[in-house]
């Protein structure tokens, strides 16, 4: 029991905070989330003023500000009709466990400090490595997102290539198609590497033959990595991984597969065949916060030869000696970044709770809805499919619409808090796009959105 007045106050404040926060969290987890809306800076300034004060306003009032003003000004990415960009639809188990991770003050950068968490994260990574078909020694870490995952993999690739290269040779190029994610160009910018575009085939894919031509025209020894995409963000296109892997092997170039969005399809038997050849990759990423039902921010980064990544990424400093010289698995050694939250734990917990069959079923469910969306688009005379769907992204046009029509339609649905479907563009044309990764999205949701385009 608290004795002093100070302790009594602290005790009461904690009780108040706990009840306000857990009540909110429980309600949010149980509810059908509202889509919510965007507010302007001026509007929020006027409604909230300055929230940070010298004395503090206390837990109850702070939660009121969040509940009444801030939370409704954040779109719910798990809303079933949020189909823009790539949504995030975490499982109940993952969301609930995220609260536990937050409450647990775990440092998951090193085995010394977070052995239990790192062990569990590594089991989750192993499940993914097995889906890919990576060998026993494969390993890596959970990083904040695909952008850091791709950058970290490319840094490892460059380190390995420069280590191997002949005296005076410094490989500085990366090859990928125009369909590769913007984070690849951004990583090359950060690394002062040159991104060389490979023309895609008629299906939009990177292929071995086009890659071979580009490598030979530029000198294969100048490249340190080839990036294939297993599910492009805009269309969900899976590159021809088998032929790309073969060309990489021929030239001894690091083969990175970006599956940030589409890697989840490895768990779905109906599309697994599209990924043939992925098992040859030197590194791979998938964002469980996209299509594997984990909350932000969670990207699984895996290497075939983790020692190569470790050589490129380990930070050295006197105060870190006890960690860098230890033989145990330190996740921080495999990516850009040092301090890390145990961000893979909510995903691990959900896998343990639900079992992997539930993951396959949930991914298949979203593919069923995508198949339905594709069929509906084909059936409706005012709509036209832009290309056949590989995964769960469906891109289509509304005949007779220009960019302004798509934008007005999208704005109206958001203003009505009905759906969030922003237009995309391809080859200069504005188009409609659904990214379906939420098992709660139904055929009826799709039909209702398509009806609004009639
Ligand atoms: C989303 C995405 C990324 C970037 O991932 P973030 O988690 O947003 O940083 C990279 N590659 C692909 C293919 C993606 O879809």
From TrEMBL:
Transmembrane domains' residue ranges: none
Signal sequence segment: none
MF annotations from Gene Ontology: transaminase activity
Top-level taxon: Bacteria
Keyword Membrane: no
Cofactor(s) named in the record: pyridoxal 5'-phosphate
Pfam families xrefs: Pyridoxal_deC
InterPro entries: Aromatic_deC, PyrdxlP-dep_de-COase, PyrdxlP-dep_Trfase, PyrdxlP-dep_Trfase_major, PyrdxlP-dep_Trfase_small, Pyridoxal-P_BS
Gene3D superfamilies reported in the protein's UniProt record: Aspartate Aminotransferase, domain 1, Type I PLP-dependent aspartate aminotransferase-like (Major domain)
UniProt entry keywords in alphabetical sequence: Aminotransferase, Decarboxylase, Lyase, Pyridoxal phosphate, Transferase
Family: Belongs to the group II decarboxylase family.
Entry protein name: Aminotransferase class V-fold PLP-dependent enzyme
Source organism of the structure: Phycicoccus sonneratiae
